[in-house]
């Protein structure tokens, strides 16, 4: 009986994914100058407290470009890898790098893998994920070997396709003595990725700790947990701030605002432990079998011992964080 149900579910999921892919194919922008993997040229822009607004471009294997920048190996490092049809200078990238630099000094790299937002072609972006991830890995390796980048103080933050680019980049370091510390996968992209092919996507084990935040599960984003800990604002479905959305892009985008907000020391997004992914899908948090722990989503001082799935209540307007702990504690038992 259970098996039968799973087969039906897989078939339905496949059908939904197929129609979405058809839809994305029909939206291919033929006027794009972004082509296959051999044309990928990933660029890296550094922001620090001293250069908050103006990025300094650093080139792989170009020591001068590092020496002439404000890169400081003593500071922690964060990479932000933008999502599909987005760019390294978009509002989400600015929000995230500013939220970090409001806390303290960091080396913040924003990664441009799409020729400054030239292409809206999802399929091409997907095809290029391996090559882009490899170029990010080459850059990280160069910074580590030549300029003292500390992988144990390095986090990768990737949004939709960027989440998988982060995963591919980190895989190259996962068997080293010191792997990359943390990856945040912000609404990791679903179409043309498979739960059964962890080598081609963000997966548990790519870094010491992998956290995912799902805001558009089953449409643009994965709904199933693929890291150590998975957080589900509004059950990972359409977000309350996205009243009229039909295509999922608003909910998928909103995760970058949640994440930027979670870096603000005034706020704490609390997730409530819900035991299993089945519970999340059923939108319930039953009392039996779970401690209902309240755990912080996102943020920067990561507790990398957390695991499991968490429901996160969110508000429909900015600031989206829900701060009343008593209220959260009384929810959905
Ligand atoms: C890595 O960083 C963590 C803190 O996030 C620290 O507890 C640990 O000792 C560090 N490991 C190494 C090998 O430096
Ligand atoms: C990406 O690389 C992985 C590992 O080498 C491979 O298994 C996978 O087929 C590649 N995917 C694509 C789309 O090239
Ligand atoms: C928090 O939620 C509880 C339970 O719903 C409620 O009684 C209390 O008034 C709320 N506190 C604030 C500050 O809104």
TrEMBL record:
Organism: Hermetia illucens (Black soldier fly)
This protein's record includes keyword Secreted: yes
UniProt-recorded Gene Ontology molecular function terms: lipase activity; serine hydrolase activity
Cellular location(s): Secreted
The protein, known as: Lipase domain-containing protein
Pfam families documented for this protein: Lipase
Recorded family membership: Belongs to the AB hydrolase superfamily. Lipase family.
A Gene Ontology cellular-component term: extracellular space
PANTHER family: FI01825P-RELATED, LIPASE
One BP term from GO: lipid catabolic process
Keywords, ordered alphabetically: Secreted, Signal
